[in-house]
Write a structure and sequence with these properties.
With 250 residues, the chain is α/β, with parallel strands linked by helices. α2 links the parallel β2 and β3. It contains 8 helices and 9 strands. Bound molecules: guanosine-5'-triphosphate and magnesium ion. The site of guanosine-5'-triphosphate has 21 residues, from β1, β2 and α3.
Length: 250
């Protein structure tokens, strides 16, 4: 079955959100005449997430499920999802409604009709915002965004999990997915030329539990080192220099 866009939804224990998210994504894509594949990438949830998805698969032929049993984590799950996607245009979105699914057609339009390689839903461009986050969470996220800007300065929210790519930018790219920032990994290593940020209002989850752990800071620092190594020692790409040129001369 042909699909224009693969929407990857990573899940770990999202029984309170998964059905509503699948139904919402489908309704939005349908109303914009986007033939979507929805790919749920689950890390062996121990609640009813998988049962719910399996039940919905009987009704939605374009809904697919990938169950992972090794190397758990958000970025490794998105990486596997990208490798299993049936479309060249790929959208990643959290399951907990922190990311507004109604923006998916804008991402799709920018990739498909405007020729962007990557589109990022950004909390830190004008019009973007975070609602209901405690101070500590805000400070950690802003700190990570600032560190991200040292490497990729023209992108304000390189850590956003709400992003879309044209898969062709990953050709001849060696990603080392870890932690929560898959978009940053792609910005640091893939062959993009045109990246666009669009503002999003990020809302804290209403249902289910956060999977964020303290280790995420360590993972991010290792990821920064890996991107620096990829650019300046392995010389596999020059994304950091290119990003600085765009930032300084645009
Ligand atoms: N497959 C998979 N998905 C995960 C994993 N950790 C988190 N997720 C999913 O990734 C998305 C983001 O995770 P969240 O726990 O919401 O992380 P967050 O948005 O930074 O934190 P909160 O909104 O406070 O919960 C959700 O859809 C989760 O179900 C994981 O280890 N594997
Ligand atoms: Mg969340």
């Amino acid at each position: 079955m042909h699909s224009d866009l693969t929407v990857i939804i990573p899940t770990f224990n999202e029984e309170e959100n998964i059905e509503r998210m699948i139904v919402t994504v489908d309704a939005i894509c349908r109303s914009h005449e986007i033939a979507e594949e929805i790919l749920v990438v689950d890390d062996s949830s121990n609640d009813h997430t998988v049962t719910i998805v399996r039940k919905l698969m009987e009704v939605y032929p374009f809904l697919h499920l990938l169950i992972r049993t090794r190397n758990p984590g958000l970025s490794p799950s998105l990486y596997d999802g990208i490798n299993h996607a049936r479309s060249d245009l790929i959208q990643c979105i959290d399951c907990d409604f922190s990311h507004p699914p109604e923006k998916i057609p804008i991402f799709y339009h920018l990739l498909k009709n405007e020729g962007f390689d990557m589109v990022i839903g950004s909390r830190y461009v004008p019009g973007g915002e975070v609602i209901n986050w405690p101070l500590m969470r805000r400070m950690l996220s802003s700190g990570a965004a600032l560190l991200g800007r040292l490497l990729i300065p023209h992108i304000k929210d390189s850590g956003s999990g709400f992003f879309a790519i044209n898969r062709c930018i990953l050709e001849e790219t060696l990603l080392s997915p870890r932690g929560f920032r898959m978009g940053f990994e792609i910005l640091g290593k893939a062959h993009w030329k045109r990246v666009q940020e669009i503002p999003i209002v990020f809302k804290d989850r209403e249902f289910g539990q956060s999977k964020l752990k303290g280790r995420i800071i360590y993972d991010f620092l290792v990821q920064c080192c890996s991107i620096l190594h990829y650019n300046f020692i392995a010389l596999k790409n020059d994304n950091i220099i290119r990003a600085w040129k765009i930032f300084l001369f645009r």
